[in-house]
Design goal:
The structure holds 2 protein chains of 2 kinds. By secondary structure, chain A is mainly α. Chain A is built from 11 helices and no strands. Chain A has 2 domains: 55 residues; 200 residues, MetI-like (MetI-like fold, Orthogonal Bundle). Chain B has 2 domains: 194 residues, Rossmann fold (3-Layer(aba) Sandwich), CATH 3.40.50.300; 66 residues, no CATH class. Chain B has a 6-stranded mixed sheet, sandwiched between helices. A 3-stranded antiparallel sheet of chain B has the order 2-1-4. The chains are: A mainly alpha, B alpha/beta. The complex binds adenosine-5'-triphosphate and magnesium ion (MG).
């Protein structure tokens, strides 16, 4: 609770800058409107007008807050206008993709640590896969899968997995290689085999790395899902809401969706952090 | 003294030396050329010996111990352990190795760490618990089994690592400066305990140290080594009795042995310069 003070201070500072930004960026439109109506605005009129536009360049925080309130609490969670509904659509694909991606990442990392050929060959491909802009290949993945009859959750989850396996590979390779020479020699003196070395030494040593990469992977999975929802003409999900918001210039809606996405990402990272601290504490690796 | 229940042999057969090294050389190929870590090392360690290796840094003490443990392979000469190739002896789990750092696994409790080799070697659950209890008692750590390593002092951690090496009843104990990082008071206590343990169990111990008093106090034989290339310059048979209270360090016999070790070390050095 001691961190509450600084957190609040930062929050207030952000809101203040946001309001100033909203006034500056929306002033042009307000002035244009006034000019067209052959009116002149006093400063206070101008400020008020910048905060109640329907399609502002930058919505003021309270406008976003109202949109959030309406999207989350004022409509039924099953309604197509509910942010809870769209958030859940995105979250479910994200979780599925995250699980796929994590599993793939762990398997690849284990392969790379135990197999020289994989060690030499996989990493360049993994890196290459991440340098291709996801917005470029997401539509292709979706089109290809659509043509073989796979639609809905799975294509989005695959794009999400595509982004989230990478941090897991990198983290787990490092984690599985983290035992020092002495710890490995110790097992050699017991004549331990490869499987035993994995379960008794490499796997537990990699746990802190594993959780750290899971946090990065969760955020990446969410981004992947949202990007997967953009090009499909998807009717549900945060990505679809973002797209329709930008078609119709609904900036307030876009910002509300962004806030929901940020809250989801933060929630995922916090859940992982919780599991991490409980696990590591029980393992005696965190005091 | 030598009446003990050795499982791996030696006791009934007419004395196969525990370690027999003849002309052992070990050269590391490094980026800046070959490093002669050991050259022409000839040494026999008999069952029940307590042999210390002493010498300046870089003289190959660790390398020799690791060669016995089959963690390095000699490039010259022959080396046998219990009459076998070191690698075969390793597979027969002939020795316990204590590294310079305790190297306990932080995610295992003290009991869990001591259990590690037992799990790997496939002891039954009941046997594991029984052995853990026994060796923790042996190193005076009963009651600490459920603690994690970071909850113990450095000296206690080092004792736990010794317990870990003792649990599976290997005949040979190889220890690489196990007490190097500890203060003198703790070190004295652990030395005393180690001697008791040795006389109780009849194990053969190879022990690396930088400390002359420690080497003299513990050993039946002291191997003095010198660097570049790493080699043996003197082997001193200790005239001290096997029963050794700490006060033995004030006797003339003790001081004489220490003196000879010091001379040996000095000779090795002047040779080098
Ligand atoms: N893996 C290795 N690769 C290359 N050179 C090595 C390796 N291990 C040891 N050496 C070299 O071999 C020589 C002997 O090393 P060793 O560790 O056996 O010395 P030591 O007597 O144990 O020294 P210290 O008292 O400092 O522990 C040194 O010159 C060292 O640099
Ligand atoms: Mg050494």
């Amino acid at each position: 609770m001691r961190s509450l003070g600084p957190v609040l201070t930062v929050l207030v500072a952000i809101l203040a800058i946001w309001y100033v930004g909203a006034v500056l960026m929306n002033a042009r439109w307000a002035e244009d409107q006034a000019q067209r109506a052959h009116k002149t605005l006093t400063t206070s009129e101008l400020v008020i007008q910048t905060m109640e536009q329907k399609r502002p360049v930058l919505p003021a925080p309270h406008q976003v807050a109202v949109a959030l309130w309406q999207g989350v609490f004022a409509v039924s969670p099953t309604s197509k206008r509910s942010l809870v509904y769209h958030g859940w659509v995105t979250l479910s694909a994200t979780l599925l993709g995250f699980v796929f991606g994590t599993a793939a990442g762990v398997l690849l990392a284990v392969g790379m640590v135990y197999n020289r050929a994989m060690d030499m060959s996989v990493m360049p491909w993994a890196i290459a896969s991440q340098t291709i802009p996801i917005v470029a290949i997401a539509p292709m993945i979706i089109v290809v899968l659509y043509s073989i009859g796979i639609t809905g959750l799975i294509p989005k989850a695959i794009i999400s997995a595509y982004l989230s396996f990478f941090p897991v590979v990198v983290g787990m390779v490092k984690g599985l290689r983290s035992p020092d020479a002495m710890q490995i020699d110790l097992l050699k003196t017991y004549n331990a085999g490869g499987v035993q070395t994995f379960w008794k030494l490499r796997m537990p040593s990699s746990m802190p790395y594993f959780f750290t990469s899971l946090k990065v992977a969760a955020a990446a999975a969410l981004v992947g899902t949202i990007v997967g929802e953009l090009p499909t003409g998807a009717v549900a999900g945060l990505g679809a809401r973002l797209l329709s918001g930008s078609y119709y210039g609904q900036t307030i809606q876009i910002w509300a969706v962004l806030v929901v996405a940020a809250v989801l990402a933060a929630g995922l990272v916090m859940v992982i952090g919780g599991v991490q601290s409980v696990t590591l504490k029980r393992m005696g690796m965190e005091r | 003294m030598s009446e003990d229940k050795a499982p791996g042999g030696g006791a009934t057969l007419p004395a196969v030396p525990v370690v027999e090294a003849a002309g052992v050389g070990l050269t590391f190929q490094t980026a800046d050329g070959p490093v002669h870590a050991l050259k022409d090392v000839t040494l026999t360690i008999e069952k029940g010996d307590f042999v210390s290796f002493i010498g300046p840094s870089g003289c190959g003490k660790t390398t020799f111990l690791r060669a016995i443990a089959a963690l390095e392979a000699p490039t010259e000469g022959t080396l046998t352990v219990n009459g076998m190739a070191p690698d075969a002896a390793r597979q027969a789990r002939a020795y316990g190795y204590v590294f310079q750092a305790a190297g306990l696994y932080p995610w295992r409790t003290i009991a869990g760490n001591v259990k590690l080799p037992l799990e790997i070697m496939g002891f039954s659950k009941a046997e594991q618990d029984e052995r853990v209890r026994k060796v923790l008692e042996l190193v005076d750590l009963d009651g600490f089994g459920n603690k994690f390593p970071w909850q113990l002092s450095g000296g206690m951690q080092q004792r736990a690592s010794i317990a870990r090496a003792l649990g599976f009843d290997a005949d040979i104990l190889l220890m690489d400066e196990p007490f190097g990082a500890l203060d003198e008071i703790v070190r004295d206590r652990l030395n005393e305990e180690l001697l008791k343990l040795w006389s109780r169990t009849g194990k053969t111990i190879g022990f690396v140290t930088h400390s002359i008093p420690e080497a003299v106090y513990l050993s039946t034989r002291i191997v003095v080594m010198s660097p570049r290339p790493g080699r043996i310059t003197d082997v001193i048979e200790s005239p001290l009795p096997r029963e050794r209270p700490l006060e033995i360090r004030d006797t003339q016999a003790f001081i004489d042995v220490a003196h000879r070790v010091r001379e040996g070390l000095r000779a090795g050095h002047s040779y080098e310069e």
